TrEMBL record:
One of its GO terms (cellular component) is nucleus. It comes from Ornithodoros turicata. InterPro entries: ARM-like, ARM-type_fold, CEBPZ/Mak21-like. This is Putative caatt-binding transcription factor/60s ribosomal subunit bioproteinsis protein.
Amino acid sequence: KKWYEQLPEGKSTGKVQNETEDVILKRRLAQALHQHDGELYKKHTESRSRRSEMQWVHTVLSKGTLADKVAAHTLLIQDSPVHNLSSLDTLISMVSPKGKKECLMAMDGLRDLFLSDLLKPDAKLKPFSQRPLGEVHSVKDVGDSKKLLLWHFEDLLKNRYVTFLEAVEKVSFDQVDKMKLRAVACMYHLLAHNPEQEQRLLEHLVNKLGDRMHSVASRASHFLTQLTGQHPLIKPAVVAEVERLLYRPNISPKAQYYGLCFLSQLLLSDDEGDLARQLVRLYFGFFKKCAHAGEADSRTLRVLLTGVNRAFPYARSNDPDGTGAFL
């Protein structure tokens, strides 16, 4: 059973509570429970039935190759994520541009771990203070103590996922193409397969359209196209994010061009009239801006015209008067 399948789902408060005396007290209780549970887990792993297995793992961690060490940490996390956060921390610390080989190995391993074992498949992780702590009355009650322990772990995991993403973002600014491309691919896979931190991941993936390396900007565009194909409902959010990129201060003309190219290739359907109208307004608005500033070169005009021609037929659908008055 995954850790989140053992989680008794109480009602969420819907908002993060301030660190009230009750929240602080429950957090301390949860920390104590986590520490105590960790000691019990350690005793279990030292028992006769698991001793040889754990001895092998610890031997690998101290004397094995880099690949073996990453595999051993992964095994420990899969065995019990709640009790092996130190292994998770170790892998996250490896995600740094300083050590290229271990960085790529750890980044790919963590991507798979988060998607297969750690993140909830269809829901975002909740902070501890957003949990209905009033439901917990006594840590002597098995159900209450389990709730508190797992809510605390969920909170710790949420923070560590953010730390991991920060590390991946740093790698995406490395000077080496291969490092950047792998980081961008990692962000895409996380965004495409899980809702956790989706806005942050989307913003960073869109920002890579402005990367100075052609291969990185092109790959970011490819991933965004794949993303909108897999998840059509995310299209408006992607368009809004690309529009923000286009009008960002000090944005390079090349980044604007890549952003427009991506938008002009966006596949639309008959029931996406609102989105098509949004795109047509964006194209005309950007043309006016460029014309006013004297920056409308032929390449930009071509991609704007392509975008309008592709979006206009869908923009007219469901338009009350059919005249395109939305312009």
